[in-house]
Amino acid sequence: MSRITVEMLLRAYGNGIFPMSESRHDPNISWFDPDKRGILPLSAFHMPRRLARTVRQDRFSVTINQAFLEVIEGCASPRPGRWTTWINSTIIEMFASLRAIDHAHSVECWDGDELVGGLYGVSLGAAFFGESMFSTRDNASKVALAHLMARLHVGGFHLLDTQFVTAHLETFGAIEIPRDDYLQRLDLAVAKDADFYGLAAGTAGSAIVAALQSMTQTS
Predict the structure, then answer these.
(1) Which has the least CB within 10 A, 24, 112, 135, 170?
(2) What is the 3-state secondary structure (H, E, C) of 121-149?
């Protein structure tokens, strides 16, 4: 990893700073510390009834950390209406290094042997920094998000950082907060311990929904 060590990366995340590139083919990265920060409060996750039904049906097989690089490549790949992304080769190398020391994780959704959706992010203490998600099947990334939320809840995480708030994330309860408020929450979260593996791999969808019921608004 060119000049940027995993220690530098984790220090940046611990201070509310994250990397992005201008485009998929731009080798450079920039560091961001926005005035407003997106978070998805774990106590206010909104799971629509249709999504809960899809999760219960186990339409997709869900795994963790089994195809980390493939998930990043899926997030970096062009899609209709989105012909470039901020994930370049430098970003991929950086996150591969974080995965090697168990500070980055992926959630994968499979249709048989085909990877059809997923997400990835960084863990530090009891904070999880969601980076990106993708889907090539209806609802695959939403199922991955539901599984992630249950895992963070069971594992004792305190903060899910979404960086920015999109209309898509708003449907699940994401909100935007000022930087000072975010940094206070971040300081508290990174000082605590959490367990990304507290939820057993391969947990059935019905158990995922049950785990979310105490923190989920359903509509």
Answers:
(1) 112
(2) EEEECCEEEEEEEEECCCCHHHHHHHHHH
CA dihedral over 18, 23, 29, 33, signed as positive or negative: negative
Quote the CA–CA distance of 193 and 212 in Å, as a whole number: 20
User: What whole-number distance in Å separates Cα of residue 206 and Cα of residue 157?
Assistant: 21
Q: 100: which 2 tokens?
A: 């090697």
Strands 216-217 and 45-46: parallel
Give the C-alpha separation, 108 to 69, whole Å: 11
DSSP for residue 86:
S
Q: Residues 42, 192: contact at Cβ < 8 Å?
A: no
> Tokens 């992926």 identify what position?
106
Give 3's DSSP letter: S
Q: What is the pTM of this model?
A: 0.93
Nearest alpha-carbon partner for 144 in 43, 41, 65: 65
3-state helix, strand, coil in the chain (%, to 5): 35, 25, 35
Strands 127-135 and 18-20: unpaired
- Give per-10-residue mean pLDDT for the chain (219 aa): 82 96 81 96 91 96 98 84 71 95 98 97 98 95 96 97 94 96 98 97 93 65
